[in-house]
Amino acid sequence: MGTFKKRDESPAKLMEQSAGERRRWPRDAQPQNEVSPPPPPVLKPLSFSTLDLAPQFQFAAWQAQMAPLVEVKLPDGKSPNDGFPAEHTAWNLGSMLIVQQRTPPHSYARSAAMLRSSSIDHWYVALPRTGRAWTEVDGRVTESHPGKLEIRSLGHPFRGRTTESEGLFVYLPRDLFAEVAATLDARNNSSLSGNFANLLVDYINGIEARLHSLTAEDLTRIVHATRSMIIASLAPPAEHDAAAEQLAGIALMERARRYVQHNLSAADLTPDSMCRALGVSRTRLYQLFEPSGGVLHYIQSRRLFAAHVALSDPADGRRIVDIAEATGFSSAANFSRAFSKEFGYSPREARNIVVFPRPAHPVSFAENEKTSSFEGWLKTLGS
Q: How many CB atoms lie within 10 A of CB 71?
């Protein structure tokens, strides 16, 4: 019987053989993974503070800062000389503003008279961090609690008071919720609750923590995600007297808003034409638009916003007079006067201002001081 030679299978020998076998095959050059640098952050905050002012001037400065939204007053027994240390930092995401705010005790009111002279009718969500506030709308008072979301319309009068507080405010244009307008209007001045509301709180906190690092590509997706979560957080409206009539009025108002938006360039966009298209009386139409300053005021405001979008779009090379005509203005002089009154600068100056012309192409407002104001951001929000 033959003998077999025992194979040397020591670890060292096996490693040597394995290495030799590997060397028989050519090695492919392994490409190094090239990591592209992340896009640069796009947001620049707009900060306002009274802390650097003398105490006797602080409250007047805060009144001016908040004038586009509400009239503010000191509590009874307080004097402007006592000081009003407040801070307000705004971030513009194109179709959404996020505001971090800290204030001493005060009262606030958005009156019917203010609505008649203002074109701002956005929704806002408030997230208190500290303090308490009580806000009344149509005789119903909502009390805020830290960590609980509230939703409120700037297109409806309200008033309230707050203790020393700190919180976050998210402003979104009404048109962003066009298809669910009735649901939101039915929940005006209410708290959001439930699992989706809790998730929305966590989500808003997460956005705030990343504001310094957000890129241009992030903004549109964040706005739409926030919108979807707000809608999901809205519980069915509570039953109350005349609910059907109220919802019918809300739906009619939304139809009217859409009609205006789709007919901005029409020369015959008038209360009479709206009455015929909507099948309502002039009295009913005027009632609908009374909180917005009247039918004609609302139409002109929407036309001016449309003109502002066109003027601030670098791709739109039309003459100013052509844009004015396309947005329903028959006189260039009337257009220029109305535009300057609404925005605080002329149509020609608007052409040189970098703004958010479309939510899909956000840029920073910080390039120009004329639009870098809280009021300017509110007026062009979502337009």
A: 15
In angstroms, the CA 185 to CA 176 distance is 13
Residue 35, helix vs strand vs coil: coil
User: Any bridge partners for residue 153, and if so which?
Assistant: 123
CA 126/CA 92 separation, integer angstroms: 16
Using CA atoms, how far apart are residues 48 and 375, in angstroms rounded to an integer? 12
**What is the pTM for the complete model shown?**
0.64
Strands, DSSP E only, in the chain?
46-49, 71-73, 87-92, 97-103, 106-110, 123-130, 133-137, 140-143, 149-153, 158-162, 165-172, 190-192
Q: Compute the distance between CA of residue 79 and CA of residue 89 in angstroms, rounded to an integer.
A: 25
Burial class (CB in 10 A: 0-12, 13-18, 19+), 55: middle
pLDDT in tens, 13-45: 544 554 444 445 455 454 455 555 667 888 999
Question: Using CA atoms, how far apart are residues 298 and 257, in angstroms rounded to an integer?
Answer: 9
Return the SS3 of 319.
coil
Q: How far is CA 53 from CA 59, 61, 68, in A?
A: 10, 9, 21
Domains of the chain, first to last: 46-233 (2.60.120.10), 243-311+313-352 (1.10.10.60)
Cα–Cα distance measured from residue 372 to residue 383, given in angstroms and rounded to the nearest whole number? 16
Nearest to 104 by CA among 171, 48, 58: 58
- What string of H, E and C letters represents the secondary structure of 123-164? EEEEEEEECCEEEEECCEEEECCCCCEEEEECCCCEEEEECC
Select from 237, 275, 258 the least CA-distant residue to 179. Answer: 258
Q: Amino acid identity of 380?
A: T
| pLDDT tens digits, 192-234 | 888 888 889 999 999 999 999 898 888 988 998 899 889 888 8
